Amino acid sequence: MAPIPIKPGVYKIHAHIIGPSSLVTATEYAVDHGAPVITDRFNPLPIEQEWIIEPAEPVPGSPYVFRLAHHESAGLVVTDDKLYVNSVPRAELTKFTFERVIGGIKILSEKGLAWHSGHRGAQIKLQDPKPDFQQTWTLEYERPDDED
User: Fold this and answer.
1) Contact by Cβ (8 Å): 75, 90
2) Which residues of 80-100 are buried (b: 16+ CB within 10 A; e: fewer)?
3) Can you tell me the distance from the alpha carbon of 136 to that of 6, in angstroms, rounded to the nearest whole number?
4) Are the CB atoms for 3 and 10 separated by under 8 Å?
5) Residues 6+ apart with CB under 8 A from 76
6) pTM of the predicted protein model
7) In three state form, how does the secondary structure of 45-85 look?
8) How far apart are CA 110 and CA 70, in angstroms?
9) What is the chain's pLDDT, residue by residue, as a tens digit (148 residues)?
10) Nearest Cα residue to 77 out of 35, 114, 105
11) How far is CA 56 from CA 35, 65, 68, in A?
C-alpha cells in the first residue's frame, strides 16, 4: 500500500496486543544502543509515552522521525532490528512511514520492516510486514508540537 501522511504533532502510540491498553514507552535504563523501547501500561506521567512525530525533511512525502516530547534531543533509532531511544543527531534518527491496515496503521522503517510488539513489556522489534495484529498501531493525537 502507499504511505499515508500523518499530521505532525505530539502523539501517544497504542499497541494492538492482547490485554490492557499498552503504549509505546521509552525505558529508563540505557544499554549499548540507547534505552529499549517497549509497550507498557498507561503511565500517568507522560514523559516516556508522548512522542513528537514530524517529517524528516520539509518536503511533501517525506518519511517521519519520532522524538520524545519531553526530551526532544532523544529520538527513535533501530539497531539489530530492535527499537531504541537515544540522543543522536537528527540525521541519525531512523525514518518511518505509515500504511493503513485493518484496525489501525502499520509503522514501517526505511528498510520496509514493520514494528512488532509480542506482548506488553517486550522490546519492539522490526519484522517483515504481515497481516498480524501485533504489527498494528493506533496513533492518538494529543496536541501540536509546542517547540515552533
Assistant:
1) yes
2) eebbbbbbbeeeebbbbbbee
3) 16
4) no
5) 37, 51, 65, 66, 67, 83, 84, 85, 93, 94, 96
6) 0.90
7) CHHHCCEEEEECCCCCCCCEEEEECCEEEEEEEEECCEEEE
8) 25
9) 678 999 999 999 999 877 667 898 888 777 778 888 988 888 767 788 999 999 999 998 899 999 999 988 899 999 999 999 999 999 999 999 999 999 899 999 999 999 999 888 889 999 999 998 899 999 999 999 975 4
10) 35
11) 21, 5, 15
Retrieve residue 16's grid coordinates: 494492538
Grid coordinates belonging to 33: 544502543
**Dihedral sign, Cα of residue 83, residue 88, residue 92, residue 96:** positive
Secondary structure (H, E, C), the chain? CCCCCCCCEEEEEEECCCCCCEEEEECCCCECCEEEEEEECCCCCHHHCCEEEEECCCCCCCCEEEEECCEEEEEEEEECCEEEEEECCHHHCCCEEEEEECCEEEEEECCCCEEECCCCCCECEEECCCCCHHHCEEEEEEECCCCC
